[in-house]
Amino acid sequence: MVWVLAVAICVVTGVQVQGQLNPHRPTSVQELGFGCLLDMCIAVDSSHSLDSQGFQQELDFLEKLVDFIDGMSGEVKAHYAAVVFSTNVSVHFDFSETRTKEEIKGKLQQIPYIRGRTNIPDAMEQCRMLLQRSPSKRYADIGAYIVTLVLTDGVANEGILTLRQAAGNLRRDQVKTIAVGAGPGVNMTELGVIAQGRLDHVFQADIPRLHELVEAIGATVCAGKKDTCQWSKWGECDAPCGGGIRIRTRGEESPCCDECLRKLDVQSCNRHTCP
């Protein structure tokens, strides 16, 4: 019984059985030093309904969006991946292939103009799989933004999945989906399905005017409910030496804490050897 209790305490406090302490896990992306921590998979329409000039304007729009997000106030750390879809879907680059803004923009400009059908559902599913192992996924519970952006100029053709199935899979993985319709041929109802019913995540403009959407989309990508609830002061350590724990809480007095990400925080203390 004593051994089981000791193991339980080690799990709660982050202390390993060997006596090593795991680093304290942050409770917000701000503790990591970021105003916005973002992983975004961009799904780019390369179907036949676009001419080559319109396709290039789509790529230029994506470059401007990357520039805008990089220049947002507060420290922004963004990771990107991109998939290209027409009849088939392919990964153009994943989260491990780009490190700097210029590398990302260069990769975007290399996206090929393929033509073919408009297989949006399978592109969304490919983004979902990439985001399952994206760099900031482990911080989604403390405010990192995990996002799929679908840029399309046409009406979806079904692939292996339907549009609703693909949107449902992303929703279950807690991935925010932004739907961007380029040109007059888009189906606004379908854009709403892509965006999981969130009409504030749906944007549409004629292709030459896509750049006018950059600011609104950038603010949506790096925006959402902030974890602003205040922690209490740390309680006293429960041991004078040899390793103890101390606790802080939130939600006791502030109504905003009804939806706090975490209400209890535990930290080791007084780890020095007892005399």
UniProtKB/TrEMBL annotation:
InterPro entries in the cross-refs: ECM_Assembly_Org, TSP1_rpt, TSP1_rpt_sf, VWF_A, vWFA_dom_sf
Keywords: Signal
Database matches in SUPFAM superfamilies: TSP-1 type 1 repeat, vWA-like
First and last residue of the signal peptide: 1-19
Gene3D superfamilies on file: Thrombospondin type-1 (TSP1) repeat, von Willebrand factor, type A domain
Record domain VWFA: where: 39-217
Superkingdom as given in the UniProt entry: Eukaryota
Residues passing through the membrane, by range: none
Record protein name field: Sporozoite surface protein 2
Taxonomic path: Eukaryota, Metazoa, Spiralia, Lophotrochozoa, Brachiopoda
